[in-house]
Structure formats: structure tokens, C-alpha cells
Design brief:
Length: 198
């Protein structure tokens, strides 16, 4: 059995259904959402003029379609399953790992296997121009200034701290005599052997 390596950073990416993204694509969210209403939704069957608030349609779908077994069907295209799953999620937002698990564990079957990888799923969502999928931008990590002073530069632009450290090292080294570091032995053991041979 082959186990695919899991990339936690990739799985943690958050995607959402974004109305602003649809407007960027010059697509109206109203027909896209109205066509997903089920008969249990109050706005089902109303004319486009009567359903002019996409946020109200989103709320209706989330409230009335979650328990409808036909709202998501296994025979639907992969992107449609993702779209409808996302409409039912809190704030229409899910991580890539959550979306992947829904597809491969809930909607995959021997008849209709879904074997997309998380990287492949990310590419599908990133290249979408129909459903309004949007990657939530990841905030850049803050650069934290070091609390320790730099060794090479002092307040006035000189290497004051570095010079003080080097000076202290020099002072310590002067206190240690060279013969204390390398003590010479008074007797050479080989001298006795040479004298004995003579």
C-alpha cells in the first residue's frame, strides 16, 4: 500500500467562495447561487428581480440545504461538489486539507473514484474562473528586531562592543604564561635509554 506524503503547509491553505472574486471575473453571483437553491429555500422559484441580494441567498442555502441529501450528489463534477460543500461551510471557508478529505473520503467510491492530490486540488481551485474560489492570502511573518546589540557596530557607528570584547580577551591571555600552557617535562625518558646503551 502506497502512502502519499502529507504537506501540512499545503493542507493548511484556506480557500473560500468569494463574491468579490466573482465580480473580478465579471460574473454575477445571483444566477450562480439561485440555481443552487432547493425547494426548501424561501427564494426558490423567485424571479431574478426578487432575489437581488447574494448574501441572503448564501444564508438560505446554508440554512435550508445542509440536510438535503440531493444538494450534493456523487455524480456531480468535482468543482461543483467543492462549490456546494463550501457554500455550507462556516463563512464559506475551508482549508485545502478539509476539502480534500471531503472529496476523497465522503464522495469517492469504487464507481466514481476521486484520487486527486492536495497539490492537484490546489491547482484546480487556483485556476478557477467560474465558481469564485479564492485563496485567502497568508500574512507575511513579522520581522522581529534582535534584542541583543550587534557586535560589530556601536551606537555611533563604530565597533565599540567588539573592541571591548577583544581587549578583554587580550588582557586575559597576558595573565597566562606560555609555560603554563605548555609545560615541558624535565626528564626525557629516551635519554636514560641512550645512556644505558652507552
Amino acid at each position: 500500500m502506497t502512502t502519499l506524503a502529507v504537506n501540512p503547509r499545503l493542507e493548511g491553505l484556506e480557500y473560500r467562495f468569494n463574491l468579490d472574486r466573482l465580480y473580478e471575473l465579471n460574473r454575477s453571483p445571483l444566477p450562480l447561487l439561485a440555481s443552487r437553491l432547493t425547494s426548501s429555500c424561501p427564494s426558490h422559484g423567485k424571479t431574478p428581480a426578487e432575489t437581488d441580494d447574494p448574501n441572503a441567498l448564501l444564508e438560505e442555502i446554508k440554512t435550508h440545504c445542509a440536510d438535503d441529501p440531493d444538494f450534493i450528489r456523487q455524480s456531480m463534477p468535482l468543482q461543483e461538489i467543492v462549490f456546494r460543500t463550501m457554500l455550507l461551510a462556516d463563512d464559506q471557508t475551508m482549508t485545502l486539507g478539509e476539502i480534500h478529505r471531503v472529496l476523497t473520503e465522503q464522495w469517492s467510491s469504487p464507481i466514481r473514484p476521486i484520487s486527486v492530490t492536495t497539490a492537484g486540488l490546489a491547482r484546480i481551485l487556483d485556476t478557477d474562473v467560474f465558481y469564485g474560489f479564492d485563496l485567502i492570502s497568508i500574512p507575511e511573518p513579522e520581522v522581529v528586531a534582535a534584542d541583543l546589540p550587534m557586535l560589530a557596530v556601536g551606537d555611533d557607528g563604530e565597533d565599540i562592543l567588539l573592541r571591548e570584547i577583544l581587549s578583554a580577551i587580550d588582557d586575559d591571555s597576558e595573565d597566562i604564561e606560555e609555560d603554563e600552557l605548555f609545560e615541558e617535562e624535565d626528564d626525557d625518558p629516551y635519554e636514560e635509554d641512550e645512556e644505558a646503551e652507552d
